[in-house]
């Protein structure tokens, strides 16, 4: 790989880059049904995950090992990607390099058109959501069918994902039943008459709806959880089996994968197959772990694709890699553990983040991939209380609070934040001069009765949700000198 890949993923459909997170979240926190759905789902997942993790006495060691593997992979990313390309090519696959979302969409569209097909089935993939692939294919007259149950719900409901792992977490069973009954017929087999909202009934309706698509599909599009440079193997982990149907039945398989998903060696996978299921779904192992290397060698009718294409996606990742503090974000394995413990996400939901990557990881990953020029992206590093819960549960030890503070500094340094820079400069000037600091503290203590309960001007937003701290009658240093000196 030569040169630096640049690119910015498109904003999700219906999302304005001009609406900052606080404004987008304001409506969400007033939606009682949404908050109830999120509260019930995240707390259930959180409690189950804690029990699953507690079963492993060496969890801390596994976490440290995963961090080390990912850092090693990122440290020699150019070498590992070239090795991966060589191995995939030797196994009968074709590797394509995409600098940004537009190029990736052009590559995938051209590959599908070359098959003569106008329909594809899809494995759940954050990368394809990131680049807006479904929308690009629709413009080219190609219909993409989501096969993951939650993604199917989102697609049929003309909705957007709100969670990394459970995209329809903001929907309850009644809403899902209504979506199936109203929209399934528009996309294929209609929902059964008299469909109820029991989980078994909803799952069976989805199974019947999708089966005809699996059986006639000639082209599938996937992502991958991991890529093994040593062997050219790709890995998809899932809970439903829909992914495996897409990976094995169609003749052509196109996988769009971020360049950071590469692992150096086959043995590295063992660590992540222990960490990922417990962090994501609180399972000891994934029900379905699919691995493939290139194309199958059994001729027509064999297991796996006859034609395999791997699209390696940059889309801002090398820019993130160049950031000494922010590059740790690229360790992310998309488990969603950070979302399930975040008090901000639990109340605001995923749509307020304006990205396919919501929650704490989205608050640091999205501004690195898209930049911080838009009001929305500039606001994301501030969508956190910095409580640190996300770092504690992260299976690859991403210090999300550290990256948030780092990105806040970047945003504050941008043009248009003169007031904040002036305030920091004034505070620095006072704190650097002890005599001036003492005088300011004494003046604040003597005038405390005149202090307002809310800050004026730009400070009003801070005191809209917080009480202004009370100033003590005298500085601590004066009290100490009088009582302890």
TrEMBL record:
Entry keyword set: 4Fe-4S, Electron transport, Iron, Iron-sulfur, Metal-binding, Repeat, Transport
The keyword Iron-sulfur appears for this protein: yes
Domain called LUD: residue spans: 83-312
Origin superkingdom: Bacteria
Region Disordered, annotated ranges: 443-467
The 4Fe-4S ferredoxin-type domain, residue ranges: 330-398
InterPro entries: 4Fe4S_Fe-S-bd, 4Fe4S_Fe_S_CS, FTHF_cligase-like_sf, Helical_ferredxn, LUD_dom, LutB/LldF, LutB_C, NagB/RpiA_transferase-like
Basic residues bias (residue ranges): 445-454
UniProt-listed SUPFAM superfamilies: 4Fe-4S ferredoxins, NagB/RpiA/CoA transferase-like
Lactate utilization protein B C-terminal domain ranges (all copies): 412-482
Name the UniProt record assigns to this protein: LutB/LldF family L-lactate oxidation iron-sulfur protein
């Amino acid at each position: 790989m030569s040169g630096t890949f640049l690119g910015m993923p498109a904003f999700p459909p219906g999302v304005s880059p001009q609406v900052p997170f606080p404004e987008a979240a304001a409506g969400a926190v007033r939606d009682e049904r949404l908050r109830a759905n999120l509260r019930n789902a995240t707390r259930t997942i959180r409690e189950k995950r804690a029990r699953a993790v507690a079963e492993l006495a060496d969890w801390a060691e596994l976490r440290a090992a995963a961090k080390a593997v990912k850092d090693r992979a990122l440290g020699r990313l150019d070498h590992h990607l070239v090795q991966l390309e060589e191995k995939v090519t030797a196994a009968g696959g074709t590797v394509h390099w995409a600098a940004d979302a537009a190029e990736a969409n052009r590559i995938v569209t051209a590959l599908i058109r070359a098959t003569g097909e106008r329909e594809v089935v899809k494995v759940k993939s954050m990368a394809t959501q990131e680049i807006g692939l479904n929308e690009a294919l629709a413009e080219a007259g190609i219909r993409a069918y989501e096969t993951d149950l939650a993604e199917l719900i989102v697609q049929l409901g003309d909705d957007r994902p709100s969670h990394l792992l459970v995209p329809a977490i903001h929907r309850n069973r009644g809403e899902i039943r209504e979506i199936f009954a109203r929209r399934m017929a528009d996309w294929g087999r209609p929902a059964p008459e008299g469909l109820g909202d029991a989980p078994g009934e909803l799952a069976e309706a989805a199974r019947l709806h999708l089966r005809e698509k699996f059986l006639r599909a000639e082209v599938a599009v996937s992502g991958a959880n991991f890529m093994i440079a040593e062997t050219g193997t790709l890995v998809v982990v899932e809970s439903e089996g829909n992914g495996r149907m897409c990976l094995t039945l169609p003749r052509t398989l196109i996988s769009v994968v971020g360049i950071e998903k590469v692992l150096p060696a086959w043995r590295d996978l063992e660590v992540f197959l222990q960490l990922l299921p417990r962090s994501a779904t609180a399972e000891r192992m994934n029900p379905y772990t699919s691995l493939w290397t290139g194309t199958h060698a059994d001729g027509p009718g064999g297991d796996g694709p006859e034609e395999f294409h791997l699209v390696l996606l940059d889309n801002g990742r090398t820019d993130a890699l160049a950031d000494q503090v922010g590059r740790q974000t690229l360790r992310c394995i998309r488990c969603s553990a950070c979302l399930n413990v975040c008090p901000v996400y639990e109340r605001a939901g995923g749509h307020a983040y304006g990205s396919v990557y919501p929650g704490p990881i989205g608050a640091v990953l999205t501004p690195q991939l898209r930049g911080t020029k838009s009001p929305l992206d500039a606001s994301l590093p501030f969508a956190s209380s910095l409580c640190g819960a996300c770092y504690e549960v992260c299976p690859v030890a991403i210090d999300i609070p550290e990256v948030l503070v780092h990105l806040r500094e970047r945003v504050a340094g941008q043009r248009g934040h003169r007031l904040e820079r002036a305030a920091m400069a004034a505070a620095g000037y006072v704190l650097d001069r002890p005599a001036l600091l003492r005088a300011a503290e004494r003046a604040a203590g003597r005038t405390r009765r005149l202090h307002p309960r809310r800050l004026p001007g730009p400070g009003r937003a801070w005191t809209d949700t917080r009480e202004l701290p009370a100033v003590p009658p005298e500085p601590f240093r004066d009290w100490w000198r009088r009582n302890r000196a």
